[in-house]
Every structure is written in C-alpha cells, then in structure tokens.
Sequence to fold (201 residues):
Amino acid sequence: MPESPQPSTELLLRQDEPAQVDLRCYDQSWFDRGRSGWYILLWWLVQAIAFPLTPHSFHIARIFLLRLFGARIGQGVSIRPTARFTYPWKVDIGDYSWIGDDVVLYSLDKITIGEHCVISQKSYLCTGSHDLHDPAFGLKTAAIAIGNGAWVAADCFIAPGVQIGANAVIGARSNVLSNIPNQQVCWGSPCRPRYFRTYAQ
Fold:
C-alpha cells in the first residue's frame, strides 16, 4: 500500500511568507468603550496608583473607587489589590463574592459575576477577541456571565461569550471556551464537565 504524502515541513515552518493580514486596516471605530478617552485614562491612573497602595484588607476602599467609576458591586465583596478592571462601568459583582490576586476582568463587554462567587488568583475573564478570518483582524466582543455560587479556580481563562452556571466549579488552569452547566465540576483545556458537585451535610 503506497504511503500517504506527508506535509512539507519546510512549508509548515516558513516564516517569510507574505502576511495575509493587514493590520493597517484594523478599525475599531465602531466599538463603544462606554466612556470618553480622558475618563478612561483617569480610571487607569487611579487604578494603577490607588489599588497597589491600599492594604490587603482594605476592600472597601477599592470597592468605593470601582463604584465611583460605574461598577455595580454588592455588599460584602472582597477584591484584592492586584485585581485589574479594564472598564469598571461594564462590571457587575453580586453580594459576598471574592476577586483574587492578579485576576483580570478584561471588560470590553459586560462581565456579570453572581453572588457568593470566587474568582481565584491569576484568572483572566476575556470579553474581547479578533476575527481570524478577517484580513483586517476585526475586533469581536461578547459578554461573560458567571452564576451564583460558582468557583473559578486559579489561573483559568474564560473566553468571550461564555456563561458559567450557578454553583459550577472550574478546575485550576482550565480554558473555558464554551458554556458550563449548573453545579458541574469541570476542568481541562478545553474545559469539560466531569461530575456533579455535591455538598457535605
């Protein structure tokens, strides 16, 4: 039986082919950041200076600043000083939720986090991406929603448009690229449901 032709390693590995993407054509003029440019710069300045200077347990001060810039945050929420919010006016966080160290809420679109949720260290909630079939590398955004009681463990990536059901658990270092049903314990890349979450009586 004749052997199947193998792909040319030379073709697969060449880096000097002409680019089929022209970034000079990139246009995000349609994108609504929700606030004026100077307001956004002011927020980034406040976040860069005030957040790292507030002691670890001063959640109230950070929540005050986030609310001042339009975030909707419930009572009893904990936000660590190294958490980052791109556009706080596009963020809703329910009561008694925790946002860990180095969490990034890349909120080009709406991010909604329910009550009693935990978003652990270094997790990245990403509401923006690009159209890989568009020669102009067009921007795409989609909202993220995390249900009440969910736990996103450390160093997870949550893709644009993902919804995580109430009381679900996302295992550490998972890549969540599609919706996750309620109360499922999930992990992996891509993240998949593994078993039903139960509680000690």
The chain has a mean pLDDT of 94. The chain has three helices and 19 strands. The radius of gyration is 20 Å.
